[in-house]
Specification:
By secondary structure, this protein is of the alpha/beta class. It contains 14 helices and 16 strands.
C-alpha cells in the first residue's frame, strides 16, 4: 500500500540547552568529545555500594529557587535548566512569545522510581508509617512531571507531555515536536529527552542481576562499545533540549540555525523484552532514509546507540552493515563511550554532540575502543576509534536510538542551507 505525502514546511533547530557528564553547554560538550574526555565516575548507590555512573554537575539554582528544587524532581531540574538554556540560546524575545503557542515534548525512559524509592526508604525509618510520606509525592511521580516543571518555569500555557519510549525517547521528543509544528498546533516546540536514572538504585540492581552492568578498575574506561573487553552499561543522567521552529518563522526573526531535521522513523521489533532485533533496526534506518529522500552513502556521520552490551553492539553493527555496508566514507561513532547511557536523554545528547560537526568538520571518536570485536564489523564504514576524524564538510548526520520492548527511533539532520 502506498501513501501520498503532502509537502511539509522545513523544521529547524534554533536553540540548544544541555547538561551532560562532560559539559553543560554545546561548546563544553563538544570540546570534551573532541578531546576524548570521559565523564564516568564512581558513585555510591543505596544497597549496592559503589557503581560507575555518568554524573552531571550543573547549576540547579540558575533557573530555580531552592524551594522549587526541593519540591520538584531531579528530572524536573534537568529539564528546567536545559529548556531555559535552549530558549536563551535561541535568541527569542521570550516576553513577546505567545505562550499558548508553545509546546513541550520531552522523551523519558522512566519517571517516578527515584521518588518512590526515596519515600519508601524514609518511611522504613518510622516502621512504615505512611503519615510521614511526602505530600509532594504525586506531582513528583506523575509521568508528565519533567515537561510540566518546564511549563511552570517558563510560563508556557500550550500543550506539554512526556513520551515514554525507553531509550529511544530522546529522538522521539524531536519527532513529536516536529509533527506538532506541521499540524499547526504550536509555533514553537521545546523538545528532547531527559534522565535522572542514576538516582534510582533499582536500575543498577536490575542491570547487575542481568549481568549487564559495566565494571572496570578505571572508571573512564568502563564504557567501551564495540571493544572485546566490554562488559555492560554505564548508567548516566543528563538532558538535551532544543527549540524547533518552522523555517519561515526562524528566518523571519533572523535566528541562527543549527541544522534541519529531514528524516525520521519509529518502529517496533515485536520480538523480545530486551534483546534487540537487527532486522527491525535496519528497517528503521531505511525508513528514515526514504523519508529524507537520501541514499545510504549520503550520510556522513552515523551515531550508534550501542550500549556496550555484547549482543546489543553486535546486532546494531549487523543492521548498520546491512544498510550502509557499501559506504566507505561513512564515519560511525558512539557518544556513550564518553558519558555512559543517559537513557531517555541519550538520543538527544548524542545528536547534540554530533551537530557541531556541521561547523568544525569532525566526527568525534568512540573512546576505549582498544581491541575491536570482529563481530562488530560494519562493512566498508569504519568505527572512528579513540581519535576524532577530520571529515571535511559534514552534510548529514544519522542518529540511532533503540530501547527495551523493541522500540527503535532514527533521526536524520542536515547541514542548514537556505
Amino acid at each position: 500500500m502506498s501513501h501520498s505525502v503532502t509537502p511539509r514546511e522545513r523544521i529547524v533547530i534554533t536553540g540548544v540547552g544541555l547538561t551532560s557528564p562532560i559539559g553543560n553547554c554545546v561548546s563544553e560538550f563538544r570540546e570534551s568529545l573532541l578531546a576524548g574526555r570521559s565523564g564516568v565516575v564512581v558513585r555510591e548507590t543505596r544497597y549496592i555500594g559503589e557503581v560507575l555512573a555518568g554524573v552531571c554537575n550543573f547549576d540547579e539554582l540558575r533557573y530555580q529557587k531552592r524551594k522549587e528544587v526541593r519540591r520538584g524532581t531531579r528530572a524536573g531540574s534537568i529539564s528546567v535548566y536545559c529548556a531555559n538554556e535552549a530558549v536563551r540560546d535561541s535568541g527569542l524575545n521570550w516576553g513577546e512569545v505567545p505562550k499558548d503557542r508553545v509546546g513541550v515534548y520531552l522523551g523519558i525512559t522512566e519517571h517516578g522510581n527515584v521518588e518512590t524509592e526515596n519515600e519508601i526508604f524514609e518511611i522504613s525509618k518510622f516502621n512504615y508509617d505512611t503519615s510521614v510520606w511526602s505530600h509532594h509525592h504525586n506531582p513528583r511521580t506523575v509521568a508528565n512531571n519533567p515537561a510540566g516543571e518546564v511549563t511552570l518555569s517558563l510560563g508556557i500555557t500550550g500543550p506539554h507531555y512526556t513520551l515514554g519510549a525507553a531509550c529511544a525517547a530522546g529522538n522521539i521528543g524531536f519527532i513529536q515536536g516536529m509533527q506538532q509544528l506541521w499540524l499547526g498546533d504550536v509555533d514553537l516546540a521545546i523538545v528532547g529527552g531527559v534522565s535522572e536514572s542514576i538516582h534510582t538504585f533499582g536500575i543498577f540492581a536490575s542491570f547487575k542481576s542481568q549481568g549487564a552492568l559495566a565494571t572496570h578498575p578505571e572508571p573512564a574506561k568502563a564504557s567501551r562499545p564495540f571493544d572485546k573487553a566490554r562488559n555492560g552499561i554505564v548508567v548516566a543522567e543528563g538532558g538535551g533540549i532544543c527549540t524547533l521552529e518552522r523555517l519561515s518563522d526562524a528566518e523571519r526573526r533572523g535566528a541562527k540555525i543549527y541544522g534541519e531535521i529531514v528524516g525520521y522513523a519509529i518502529n517496533s521489533d515485536a520480538s523480545d523484552f530486551v534483546l534487540p532485533y537487527a532486522k527491525r533496526q535496519a528497517e528503521c534506518m531505511r525508513k528514515a532514509l526514504q523519508r529524507a529522500k537520501l541514499n545510504p552513502c549520503d550520510i556522513d556521520i552515523l551515531n550508534t546507540h550501542a550500549t556496550a552490551t555484547e549482543q546489543g553492539d553486535i546486532g546494531e553493527c549487523q543492521a548498520v552493515r546491512e544498510v550502509f555496508g557499501d559506504c566507505p566514507n561513512l564515519a560511525v561513532n558512539n557518544t556513550k563511550s564518553f558519558i555512559g547511557h543517559a537513557m531517555g536523554a541519550a538520543g538527544a545528547l548524542e545528536l547534540l554532540g554530533n551537530i557541531p560537526g556541521f561547523q568544525d568538520g569532525y566526527a568525534h571518536a568512540t573512546i576505549n575502543l582498544d581491541d575491536p570485536d570482529p563481530a562488530c564489523d560494519c562493512g566498508a564504514p569504519q568505527i572512528v576509534a579513540n581519535q576524532a576524524r577530520q571529515m571535511g564538510q559534514v552534510n548529514y548526520i544519522l542518529n540511532n536510538s533503540f530501547g527495551m520492548l523493541g522500540i527503535n527511533s532514527v533521526l536524520i539532520v542536515r547541514r542548514f542551507e537556505p
